[in-house]
Amino acid sequence: MNKRVLLLIGLAFFLLSLFFSVYTHARYYTRVNVESTTMYTASWNFEVNNSPTSFTTDLGDLYPGVNRSFNLNLSSLGSDVPIDYTITFSNPRNIPGKLVFYEDSEKQHVISLDGGTITGRMGANTNKLVTIYYDWAYEGAEEPKTGSTTFNMTVVGIQRDPNS
């Protein structure tokens, strides 16, 4: 036989062997289709003094020598996530000169009614009472103010970063 014929027969035998060896490899195979994946969004609730939008606070009569406080009841009841909150004071009008607001009962942390803030954290599904203290010192003469003494507060609750 001619070398060329032997080479062709050898090549054909090799290709047939390769073809059958690939298809004789056995394996199990299963394909599973996931038809539905469900995720639930955590509930969110943040209220101040039982209101999710706005409220009014009346501090009563002001006069020199008054030393009082008022509360903001922050609530995340029904919320699945913890909250960072910021209370911002703004727009003070007709404030007596010696009337001072504080973040603590020891009167160590003064709150500016013109841009001052109180920040804090609260857990999910909890209540937190934030008390704000104020004092109008009874010292020396002070020109009386007429009309209402007012200021605004904005309370913002933001979901706490779960990685912090």
Give a written overview of the molecule.
- The chain is mostly beta strands.
- The protein has a domain of 113 residues: Immunoglobulin-like (Sandwich), CATH 2.60.40.
- The protein is built from one helix and eight strands; from the N terminus they run αββββββββ.
- The strands form two sheets. It has a five-stranded antiparallel beta sheet, with no helix packed on it. The chain has a three-stranded antiparallel beta sheet with strand order 6-3-8, with no helix packed on it.
- The radius of gyration is 37 Å and the shape is rod-shaped.
- The relative contact order is 0.22.
- The mean pLDDT is 86.
What are the defining features of this structure?
13% helix, 8 strands, five-stranded antiparallel β-sheet, three-stranded antiparallel β-sheet, 164 residues, mainly beta, rod-shaped, Immunoglobulin-like
Low-pLDDT parts are none
Q: What is the CATH topology assignment of the domain at 47-159?
A: Immunoglobulin-like
- Biggest beta-sheet profile: 5 strands, antiparallel
Distance between the termini: 83 Å
Q: What is the ordering of alpha helices and beta strands?
A: HEEEEEEEE
Helix/strand layout:
Elements: H1 3-23, E1 47-48, E2 67-75, E3 83-93, E4 99-102, E5 110-111, E6 117-122, E7 127-136, E8 150-159
Antiparallel strand pairs: 1-2, 2-7, 3-6, 3-8, 4-5, 4-7
Can you describe this structure in just a few lines?
The protein is mainly beta and 164 residues long.
